[in-house]
Amino acid sequence: MALANKKSSDIFNKKTGGDTDSKSISTQKETEIKNKFDNGEHVEDNGMFETLAPTLYAIQQLTEDVEEIRRFVTSEITSITTSQASAITANTAKVSLEGGSSTAISFGDLVTVPGKKGGKDTYYIIMTATKAGLSKSITLTLI
Questions:
Q1: Which of 29, 61, 106, 109 has the most C-beta neighbours closer than 10 Å?
Q2: pTM confidence score
């Protein structure tokens, strides 16, 4: 499943010069906002807090969701090594069963064909046996 397009937009930005728009603030203004947040001013004013409480609760839930996504990405998704990437590119995972200097059985790539059969993707495994210069292949169709 692909990542959907972003739905949210900036609450504010730090665009400068000719790029400024109605949401642009200065670095100084951002620092003021950050300091007020860090000092807990958004919860000190009881009247303001009561007005903002539902929104602050929703933002807190979003923050926790983002942190869970970060935890998952950090712990569950790993990168591959250069060696692994090269092996994949070279397709070194093919298996050959040697039966002497002139006999070999090899299993080729799993091939996906763009067409569908009965509404399902069609896959093929191509197997080749070679002996004394003679080669025979069979294609196994997986549906």
A1: 106
A2: 0.41
Cα–Cα–Cα angle for 89, 90, 92, rounded to 5 degrees: 120
Q: Do the Cβ atoms of 14 and 25 come closer than 8 Å?
A: yes
- How far apart, in whole angstroms, are the C-alpha atoms of residue 142 and residue 121? 9
How many Å apart are CA 69 and CA 48, to the nearest integer? 31
CA dist 67 and 71 (Å) reads: 6
Let me know: does 81 contact 88? Beta carbons within 8 Å.
no
Where do the H-state alpha helices sit in 9-105? 27-38, 41-44, 46-76, 82-90
Per-residue model confidence as pLDDT tens for the chain (143 residues): 567 887 878 888 888 899 999 999 999 999 998 998 899 888 888 888 888 888 888 888 998 999 998 888 877 766 777 887 787 777 766 655 555 555 555 555 555 555 566 667 777 777 777 777 788 888 877 76
CB 107 within 8 A of CB 127: yes
Q: What angle do CA 101, 102, 103 make, to 5 degrees?
A: 100
